[in-house]
Design a protein that fits this description.
157 residues; binds zinc ion; 5-stranded antiparallel beta sheet; globular; Peptide Deformylase; 38% strand; alpha+beta; 3-stranded antiparallel beta sheet
Amino acid sequence: MSILKIKINPDSGLRRKSQDLDKQDLRHDGFQELIGDMAETMIAKDGIGLAAPQVGENIRLIVVNTKDGVLPMINPVISSKSLAKEWDEEGCLSVPNTFGQVKRHKKIRCKFISAEGEAKRIEAKGLLARVIQHEIDHLDGILFIDKAKDIHEAHEL
Ligand SMILES: [Zn+2]
């Protein structure tokens, strides 16, 4: 496995709408390797989520860090969401040293395909719900700075 290079804003690939994957794509050797590399890259960079366009692949694949480990999600779609939203601080590996407050749905249900090609559902709240919403935005070419308020740079200690 290897650490992938992260695309940094501004980069046209970060602004493109990514393509859905089909079952055949999953069987491709390079695809399972990409999932492993994305997981390794996310952990090495202290991220809690990573979307394929951030590593130069405009396909609908994200990895998120959950309490049970790294969860790869293929073709993720939010199927329902709470009316309640909340503000919280976000950052992004593609927008270094920048943070801002973003309003997200508190709770979501999401459909996706697992790395093994199975149809799955997840219910997420709080931070995990936030991360999934942030990563799905990447698949649509949206960055958190498009929605954030109080955007500020990190303060070095
Ligand atoms: Zn991001």
